[in-house]
């Protein structure tokens, strides 16, 4: 069965057919670096990392490029507020981006072009557009003439007549700019220098590039004129991606990308999690437990909004270990939904992801915890061949269906639960119900398929926290206390302990022989 994916351009699912066999050229719009990343950003980059990893697992040689927008009014504002420079603010938040995304096990891109490093390519492209009649200079600015590009609106489905004045970009609301445009829908390719702002020489005078042109230039410089997949959040469809298409396709006469893919939002009470709405939580605050489930009525402290100085280390609030979330639980929170479905950020959704990760983690650790007792030689396992092919096919069928990660996770949970149960039986009864050989095959399958989704057990030191569930020893201790309480006919205490374990995602099974076995989930 071929891999099929939803193409925003055609508005339907179609088989994936790359330009060059077994090669994929993929471009993802990156962050504007003026603040810490929030959970919405985490979703976007976890989703594209999952797509990239899956394509690699399917045998494609993927070249993945993601930019940093390092010149923008928001960065300049932040530099002014903090008495810093645009370069320093951008570099600071590029470093912080990597710190957060590395924790979430997001593979580094093959290339990270930056707007300020692409000025020559940007100017070249604008000149081409000018020569071809798609761009015009106006008092030091250069604008794209959208009426010249007959396909304008093909991605977003918007008709030019319906577009509002000023809808051409996030920065062009100033009336003075509107007066320089021939049509309200035209958008800036180049903006004349403002006093005190960074500027580059050009034939139109000193100035800086608009936002949309940077991606067109970077795609071309790094990947070529037509690429396989162009992706980003759904808010980028219009105007950003529509404008990228207009710029690139007018210049080259070729399609910019064959497949356009967009991730849905993380929302809070149905609204996009975003800095401007102050309903966000930074990735680092989530990991540290410095967050409230009710962001609408109880927004994070000022520090949680990304800090007032570029050097500030996230929120100043105290961390709450019980609320701390392991990075892999954040990944699971994202992957438990298909990438085109909205995810509402709630304490319940996070709790469910934490529980889910405990179950998966226990399954993933089965081999190292119990393998030698079962006579496995972990060093000699052939991870490629010793898999359960039926389950691998089930996983692949789900993923081939437009990256249906919830479907793929069902396979992982089935395996992890079984391994978790068998691990308990082994601890309590000294042997397992399933043969060690079959268990090895199941474990290898789980480790491999979880790895395709980037779900890996990380060393404790890298996870910020030592909680996220009770350890096996703590669980055994509580079970013993419950046993003692019940022996002393203190059944209320026995029930309390059972409930405490349940709240921590641990289920007890009292067997007829008086032995209590347990499993997570
Ligand atoms: N709440 C969200 N859910 C999913 N993706 C998001 C969310 N917020 C931002 N993104 C995506 O993250 C990527 C980088 O976003 P960008 O740096 O432009 O931030 P932004 O959308 O302006 O965020 P904010 O509105 O919080 O400032 C884009 O692809 C964007 O669509
Ligand atoms: Zn872009």
TrEMBL record:
<comment type="subunit">
    <text>Monomer.</text>
</comment>
<keyword id="KW-0862">Zinc</keyword>
<dbReference type="InterPro" id="IPR009080">
    <property type="entry name" value="tRNAsynth_Ia_anticodon-bd"/>
</dbReference>
<feature type="short sequence motif" description="'HIGH' region">
    <location>
        <begin position="31"/>
        <end position="41"/>
    </location>
</feature>
<feature type="binding site">
    <location>
        <position position="275"/>
    </location>
    <ligand>
        <name>ATP</name>
    </ligand>
</feature>
<feature type="binding site">
    <location>
        <position position="29"/>
    </location>
    <ligand>
        <name>Zn(2+)</name>
    </ligand>
</feature>
<keyword id="KW-0479">Metal-binding</keyword>
<keyword id="KW-0963">Cytoplasm</keyword>
<protein>
    <recommendedName>
        <fullName>Cysteine--tRNA ligase</fullName>
        <ecNumber>6.1.1.16</ecNumber>
    </recommendedName>
</protein>
<comment type="similarity">
    <text>Belongs to the class-I aminoacyl-tRNA synthetase family.</text>
</comment>
<keyword id="KW-0030">Aminoacyl-tRNA synthetase</keyword>
<dbReference type="InterPro" id="IPR014729">
    <property type="entry name" value="Rossmann-like_a/b/a_fold"/>
</dbReference>
<dbReference type="GO" id="GO:0005524">
    <property type="term" value="F:ATP binding"/>
</dbReference>
<dbReference type="InterPro" id="IPR024909">
    <property type="entry name" value="Cys-tRNA/MSH_ligase"/>
</dbReference>
<feature type="binding site">
    <location>
        <position position="244"/>
    </location>
    <ligand>
        <name>Zn(2+)</name>
    </ligand>
</feature>
<feature type="domain" description="Cysteinyl-tRNA synthetase class Ia DALR">
    <location>
        <begin position="394"/>
        <end position="465"/>
    </location>
</feature>
<dbReference type="GO" id="GO:0006423">
    <property type="term" value="P:cysteinyl-tRNA aminoacylation"/>
</dbReference>
<keyword id="KW-0547">Nucleotide-binding</keyword>
<dbReference type="InterPro" id="IPR032678">
    <property type="entry name" value="tRNA-synt_1_cat_dom"/>
</dbReference>
<dbReference type="GO" id="GO:0008270">
    <property type="term" value="F:zinc ion binding"/>
</dbReference>
<dbReference type="InterPro" id="IPR015273">
    <property type="entry name" value="Cys-tRNA-synt_Ia_DALR"/>
</dbReference>
<feature type="region of interest" description="Disordered">
    <location>
        <begin position="292"/>
        <end position="320"/>
    </location>
</feature>
<keyword id="KW-0648">Protein biosynthesis</keyword>
<dbReference type="Pfam" id="PF01406">
    <property type="entry name" value="tRNA-synt_1e"/>
</dbReference>
<keyword id="KW-0067">ATP-binding</keyword>
<feature type="compositionally biased region" description="Polar residues">
    <location>
        <begin position="309"/>
        <end position="319"/>
    </location>
</feature>
<dbReference type="GO" id="GO:0004817">
    <property type="term" value="F:cysteine-tRNA ligase activity"/>
</dbReference>
<feature type="binding site">
    <location>
        <position position="215"/>
    </location>
    <ligand>
        <name>Zn(2+)</name>
    </ligand>
</feature>
<dbReference type="InterPro" id="IPR015803">
    <property type="entry name" value="Cys-tRNA-ligase"/>
</dbReference>
<feature type="binding site">
    <location>
        <position position="240"/>
    </location>
    <ligand>
        <name>Zn(2+)</name>
    </ligand>
</feature>
<feature type="short sequence motif" description="'KMSKS' region">
    <location>
        <begin position="272"/>
        <end position="276"/>
    </location>
</feature>
<dbReference type="Pfam" id="PF09190">
    <property type="entry name" value="DALR_2"/>
</dbReference>
<keyword id="KW-0436">Ligase</keyword>
<dbReference type="GO" id="GO:0005829">
    <property type="term" value="C:cytosol"/>
</dbReference>
């Amino acid at each position: 069965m071929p891999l099929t994916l939803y193409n925003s351009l055609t508005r339907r699912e179609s088989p994936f057919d790359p330009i060059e066999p077994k090669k994929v050229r993929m471009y993802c719009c990156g962050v504007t670096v003026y603040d810490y990343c929030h959970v919405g950003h985490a979703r976007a980059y976890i989703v594209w990392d999952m797509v990239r990893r899956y394509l690699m697992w399917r045998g494609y040689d993927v070249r993945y490029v993601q930019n940093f927008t390092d010149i923008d009014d928001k960065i300049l504002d932040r530099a002014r507020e903090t008495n810093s420079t645009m370069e320093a603010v951008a570099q600071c938040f590029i470093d912080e981006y990597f710190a957060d995304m590395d924790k979430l096990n997001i593979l580094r891109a093959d290339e990270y072009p930056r707007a300020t490093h692409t000025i020559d390519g940007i100017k070249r492209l604008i000149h081409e557009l000018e020569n071809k009649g798609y761009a015009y200079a106006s008092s030091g600015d250069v604008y794209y003439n959208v009426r010249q590009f007959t396909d304008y609106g093909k991605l977003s489905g918007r008709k030019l007549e319906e577009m509002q004045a000023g809808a051409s970009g996030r920065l062009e609301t100033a009336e003075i700019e509107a007066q320089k445009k021939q049509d309200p829908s035209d958008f800036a390719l180049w903006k004349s220098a403002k006093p005190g702002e960074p500027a580059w020489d050009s034939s139109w005078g000193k100035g800086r590039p608009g936002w949309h042109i940077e991606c067109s230039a970077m795609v071309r410089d790094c990947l070529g004129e037509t690429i396989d997949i162009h992706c980003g959040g759904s808010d980028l469809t219009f105007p950003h991606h529509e404008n990228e298409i207009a710029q690139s396709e007018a210049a080259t006469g070729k399609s910019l990308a064959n497949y356009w893919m967009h991730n849905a939002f993380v929302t809070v009470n149905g609204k996009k999690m975003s800095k401007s709405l102050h309903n966000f939580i930074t990735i680092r605050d989530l990991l540290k437990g410095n967050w409230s489930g009710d962001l609408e009525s109880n927004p994070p402290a000022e520090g949680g909004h990304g800090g007032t100085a570029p050097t500030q280390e996230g929120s100043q609030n105290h961390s709450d270990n019980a609320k701390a979330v392991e990075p892999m639980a954040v990944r699971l929170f994202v992957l438990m939904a298909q990438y085109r479905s909205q995810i509402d950020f709630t304490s319940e959704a996070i709790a469910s992801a934490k529980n889910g990760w405990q179950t998966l983690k226990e399954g993933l650790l089965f081999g190292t915890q119990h393998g030698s007792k079962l006579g496995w030689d972990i060093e000699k396992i052939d991870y490629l061949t010793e898999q359960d092919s039926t389950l691998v096919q089930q996983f692949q069928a789900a993923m081939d269906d437009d990256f249906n990660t919830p479907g793929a996770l069902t396979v992982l949970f089935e395996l992890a639960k079984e391994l978790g149960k068998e691990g308990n039986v082994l601890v309590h009864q000294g042997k397992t119900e399933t043969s060690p050989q079959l268990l090895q095959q199941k474990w290898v399958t789980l480790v491999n398929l979880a790895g395709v989704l980037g779900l890996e057990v990380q060393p404790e030191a890298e996870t910020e926290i030592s909680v996220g569930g009770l350890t096996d020893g703590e669980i055994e201790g509580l079970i013993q206390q419950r046993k003692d309480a019940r022996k002393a006919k203190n059944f209320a205490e026995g029930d309390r302990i059972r409930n405490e374990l349940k709240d921590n995602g641990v289920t007890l099974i009292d067997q007829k022989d008086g032995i209590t076995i347990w499993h997570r989930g």
